[in-house]
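Rotation project, supervised by the postdoc (A.L.). Task for the rotation student: set up a whole-complex structure prediction and record inputs and outputs verbatim in this book. Inputs entered:
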Amino acid sequence: MIVAERKPIEEIRAMVKDFKKVLTVGCGTCVAVCLAGGEKEVGVLNSELKIARRMEGDPIETGAMTVERQCDMEFLEELDGVVDEYDALISMACGAGIQFLAERFPEIPVFPAVNTSFIGVNREVGWYEEKCRACGTCVLGMTAGICPVTMCAKGLFNGPCGGTNKGSCEINSDQPCAWYKIHERLAKQNRLANILEICPANDWRNQTPRTIVQPGYQERLTALGIK
Amino acid sequence: MKSGSNLEKILRAGHFAFTGELGPPRGSNVEAVREKAKPLVGNVDAVNITDNQTAMVRMSSWAASLIAIEEGLEPNYQMVCRDRNRLAMQADILGASALGIRNMLCLSGDHQQFGDHPQSKGVFDIDSTQLIGTVKKMRDEAKFLGGADIDGPPKLFIGGAANPFAEPHEWRVHRLAKKVAAGVDFVQTQCIFNMERMRTWVKEAVDMGLTEKVYILAGVTPMKSIGMARYMQLKVPGMDVPNEIIKRLQGVDKKKVADEGIKIACEQIEEFKEMKGVAGVHLMAIEWEHKVPEIAERANVLPRPVV
Ligand code: SF4
Ligand code: SF4
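Outputs recorded:
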């Protein structure tokens, strides 16, 4: 899932300081699961904002709505009409959701309440770990399911650097060396041959805005005259 | 002859190579480079010019390499993958070759977190093995990595690094094999203190037939003090400093520690001269360039052969 972290209240306050009535829009998917921008977090943010503004002598009125997914137009439809009553929107979705919301309502300012951090996994409640940088050319098959782009501090493709230290990464002893782990797991699976061949320079396709049309849907999109 | 460099000639002629190191200054102080170069002239076959060593900004490696040439040294131009993408790298490779640089060492580089710009964006567009392959492709096929033709391919003797010590040990010789497959001509190892481990690794390389395709230069660093030895043992990633080394330094009179460090280094060099699979020594006398003549003298590697 996409993991995000809420921005500090001061930063959010500064963004909406000129507005009297804002609607905070949560998202019910990734950011809700990682406890950054779901319904509950919308409520907390609104009360923090209200208390702070009241103490400042400049009260703010807030509204709250949490849609299923901000990255899906279908769910943004529920906001049509509602947003007109507000001066600004605060979105608690990931960067993709925030941009889609802003695209749907281009007349009204939209502010991010979270920092979208990474694609990751849930280790324990409240504890998330980055796992993928969406590089666009996945090599997990070669590396025993451990991502060298994300988990190796240098994103190396051909084995450990000289700094690897008894299984830790040179950047700090708490960080496992990705290549040590890759080696360990491949050895266990008897697949070390996987990394004996040179992996060529990567194709960094995540450097331009990307779009994907899944096979089977192209015809439909062409018929609709969209793509 | 792939590059015509002095280092290549020495190694091809079967001489035991002896290389040194020069860290460029943190500024545009040309005199500082010249000062460090002087004691090296005539005492080494080539000198590594480090590239933003330990992720600290320094005078660029190619620029310091050119000053070294003016001083009568042959540079081994280092390039790390941390700071440049494949366009910048290939551009610098062409420039370096055009200006007479004939050896190049391809490295991934220390992580930027260790330097004085920890906020910087590490590039690592390609890794050290891929960089070796890139230089080889440019030199031998006159092609850029992207496939286009090069008008005047670079002439370079291609170097890489090897660490015989870091775990998993099994992987260390495989990693060397990959660099050999990528086209490396010579490798210089991490500073060696654990001779036992070094012997094993070199033997593995010999057994795999790798030493017929690559010249291995053993990395030697004289310890200046007990503090330095401890620091290297505990703090420097990838270093393997056995306790015996520390004990030996502790065993001599305080004023004699540095001398004992040099003695250990010289003993190592004597052993490497005899070790099958080792083609030379790379002396990393960190900020101790002025001691190189003395070390070279005591290690009996002088005079340097002229080829
Ligand atoms: S290789 Fe690329 S796509 Fe695969 S996990 Fe790593 S970053 Fe993600
Ligand atoms: S120590 Fe391992 S994880 Fe860290 S940069 Fe080197 S190879 Fe990558």
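Student's summary: Residues 9 and 45 of chain A are 8 Å apart (CA to CA).
Supervisor addendum: The helical segments of chain A are 9-15, 30-33, 39-56, 73-76, 95-104, 148-151, 178-188, 218-223.
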